## 1
Amino acid sequence: MKIAVVILNWNGEKLLKQFLPSVIRHSENASIYVADNASTDASIAILKRDFPTVKIIQNNKNYGFAKGYNEALQYVEEPYYALVNSDIEVTENWLNPIIELFDNEIKTAIIQPKILDYKQKTHFEYAGAAGGFIDKYGFPFCRGRIFDTVEQDKGQYDDETEIFWATGACLFIRNEVFHELKGFDADFFAHQEEIDLCWRAFNLGYIAKYTSKSVVYHVGGATLDAANPRKTFLNFRNSLFMLVKNLPPNQLIPILFIRMLFDGAAAFKFLFEGKLYHFFAVVKAHFNFYVKIKTFYLKRNSYFRTNYHKVNSIVEAYFVKKQKKFLDLF
């Protein structure tokens, strides 16, 4: 098999029963693995009883998304990885366009399919949509989703094109590139680690692509809901870590300073909206960043590219210029 579908699981027995059948049905040309992060529910028993063709990798503790995959992928030898959330429904022929791209384009190291909303299949899904980008200050956005505005799929992104980042909800990557990059940064635990991975690949000259020829449906928020302050903490903290690791040297201090001002504005917006737990999550994220900034600075490598962003400020474009859709930006 050229491709390994690897699903990370932690106490997700209901999701496995619901979504694993579609993966098995439509992945006849792949090896299928479930990497289990030391679940305490019946996940392993269900896999052994109901899905005997699926290979099981058992991590010895809950390592989170980043280290969970790093640990598991040491045991997966197929040349192409498909890292797939447990709340993804795949479609017929979802793997063939990916294999074809990898086979024909040697510099293409990372690929994302079209990701639609499982709960509203006419619309893109928040996490990834039709491929991701970041602005000058590290704020992520997608073709098909900017902040909380999610577009209906009308065929406007039915193409194959270069992107900056692919979502961890369904991310394809070459085996050798994943290990050359030393995998995800385990210190992220979860959230933004896929953008950091793609940025590091970009700095080394690799290409990330989106293809609409492969389609999946994502539930989203099945592991950690957007209303959870833990998610706010991880997103704000990890964005700062990512900037410290990947910004070109001459841009690091000014960009980081402005980004932290944006974060302060977001924190006070939470406060004025009465979202005290989210306000304190941002404060906690910054304090945690200050404690660990040296650790992440030492992770910088010597390769940087300055053309990482297509938009100077997605915050200005969205909130001031009212450019709510990706195609409005250009």
## 2
Amino acid sequence: MTELHQDGRAGIDAALVRRLIAQQFPHWADLPVTPVAVDGWDNRTYRLGPGLTARLPTAESYVAAVDKEHVWLPRLGPELPVEIPEAVAKGEPGLGYPYPWAVRRWIQGETASPGTVQDLDEFARSVSAFILALQNVDATGGPLAGAHSFHRGASLEHYHDETIDALAVLDLPHDVWDAALAASWDEAPVWFHGDIAGGNLLVRDGRLSAVIDFGTSGVGDPACDLVIAYTFFSGSSRAIFREAVAQDDAMWARARGWAFWKAAITYETSPASRQVLEEVLADHQANA
């Protein structure tokens, strides 16, 4: 039986996945189950033979993504310039594991990093092309930003109190945050990914080949998808990304707000957060 940890997270291992597969998808029961090399916090992912993965939410707050991705990934995929996960089947709670889960097609590729990307400038163009293509997908009936997207795509006001508290602890000015809140989104909702970051970008031969993990996706304000400008790009690649993605000043003000919020609340646990805060502050001052 699967036990929930004290923090509410489900205990997941390969043995559980094998039993769930055997129970619910017996035609795959003979396939080997192995953990992926780079895993996430929201879900545990296991290779299922050479061509599939099993992806299991670790807590109740991540469950909404299972149905959302199962419905929308097949609709988004044909409209986008690189691969995205392909929904194959949906598992049900069982054997003490309390949540629905997903079977997806395995996508070959390396996680994007300065060491795996061949040309950062070209990579910036490719990421911007993906973002623009996603924004251009028909958003009719799409999942409006909210709890399922952890409020990515919605107003930054949702994170106001914790941001102000974090800035007080760090003794940082409120200028970036105030400007982000003032630059409200008044347009029709468009598709956003919600977590465009190196860990969710795959490369083959040094070039962008796939975008994964649409768990925080939805329709709303796409400013959150520009945060990668501060967390991955710099110098010429950032300038190229900014030009290629072609967003207005208000969008960039909100993007700085998203980056500032995340870096401020993870300052104590993420070594990269200090650099992000400095980059965002400098960019705000340069574009104020």
## 3
Amino acid sequence: MKAFALKRLSLALCAATLLTGALTACVPLVVGGAFAGGTMLATDRRTSGAQLEDEGIELRASSRIRGNVGDRAHVNLTSYNRQVLLTGEVPSAQDKQLVEQIVSRVENVNSVVNELAVSGNSSLSQRSTDVLVTGRVKANLLDARDLQSNVFKVVTERGTTYLMGRVSQREADRATQVVRATPGVQKVVRIFELLSDDELARMSSSTSAPVRPPAPLVTDPPASN
């Protein structure tokens, strides 16, 4: 119980730290790397090699994007099991396509989900709100005792929360239920690699896991007026 409380507190502190950074600096490109602590590595369903490759993908891709589009775009890049999610804003459709092409050519990238919006860069207020929403989502996933919160990668952009991970159908549906009930979440986009219950059981004793094609992108239906 004490460890659970400390873990939840650490999420709140991380969110507060990120919020402080968002309020004090305008960062045009944000890399969405995961924590690399022992607990995270122990519960991460990616192989250790995939985790290292994801870190390398984020570093190389962010550097190349910065070199090509500079400060005219605000791009968030998150790699999970060699699948890259792009969120943020770019000034033109040409820039949106350019960023996707740059990332798709990075070594070890298997696929790219391009959720970049063609619009002006989001405000610091919006980014701060997104940080707080992400913190709430992570805390709520941690509170859900029937889920392993560390198997989910959470990204929030302009009120839309993206979920990534290698999960079962039950876990995907349950996590979506939890996230939709989180204050501030306007829409949920699921980018999951679905695993069977038998696969999850085998993974607990396996030292490696194959790279599989991701499940189709699933989003909430548009809100009715």
